[in-house]
Design the sequence.
């Protein structure tokens, strides 16, 4: 895992690309920072993120009484869940994680439904991404390699989905209907500047 100096350098590279970028030593610090970046009165949605769960951010968002939540986990049917995901694209603030970050400031994500990469790309005016420094790789190709062969198979295992990588532990480029890898996104630049805020955390978090 890369050291703090390298993480701080990545923060500077992210800033050069228009991203809001921060480094926090601890999960608690990152949670408090993320909460401070959500304005009172906002409508808030989030994508599936083990990191956001691990640092207690999603729970804290659910506890705030000055915001409106779009919580897909409250859906009673698949159709309702999809509708809540669609509405999340119109939220003021969207929270998510990142599957891979290159040292020179690109973000990489793989998504099954597509709502997460869609919301990061366009829609919500305030996007907050949280990531442990374990997500940082030397270059974009390595970050995508990480997303495909580390993050995705671990998520398949977490969700107990019978995709080929459940056994192999690496991506088999499957065509399974249950695949969680439909959309690959690389975010090279943030425009308008500061819309996407990346909080790097000096801990091993997520996948
Ligand atoms: S085998 Fe399928 S589900 Fe698993 S990582 Fe590859 S594309 Fe994704």
Sequence:
């Amino acid at each position: 895992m890369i050291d703090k100096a390298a993480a701080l350098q990545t923060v500077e590279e992210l800033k050069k690309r228009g991203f809001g970028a921060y480094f926090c030593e601890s999960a608690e610090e990152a949670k408090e920072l993320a909460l401070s970046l959500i304005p009172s009165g906002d409508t808030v949605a989030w994508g599936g993120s083990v990191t956001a769960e691990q640092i207690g951010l999603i729970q804290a968002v659910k506890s705030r009484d000055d915001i409106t939540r779009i919580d897909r986990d409250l859906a009673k049917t698949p159709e309702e869940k999809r509708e809540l995901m669609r509405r999340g694209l119109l939220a003021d603030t969207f929270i998510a994680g990142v599957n891979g970050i290159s040292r020179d400031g690109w973000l990489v994500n793989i998504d099954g439904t597509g709502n997460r990469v869609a919301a990061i790309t366009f829609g919500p005016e305030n996007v907050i991404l949280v990531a442990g420094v374990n997500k940082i790789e030397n270059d974009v190709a390595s970050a995508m390699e990480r997303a495909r062969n580390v993050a995705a198979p671990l998520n398949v295992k977490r969700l107990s989905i019978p995709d080929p990588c459940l056994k192999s532990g690496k991506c088999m480029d499957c065509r399974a209907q249950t695949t969680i890898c439909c959309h690959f996104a690389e975010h090279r630049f943030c425009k308008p500047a500061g819309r996407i805020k990346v909080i790097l955390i000096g801990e091993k978090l997520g996948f």
Notes: The chain has one domain: 4-201. The chain has a mean pLDDT of 96.
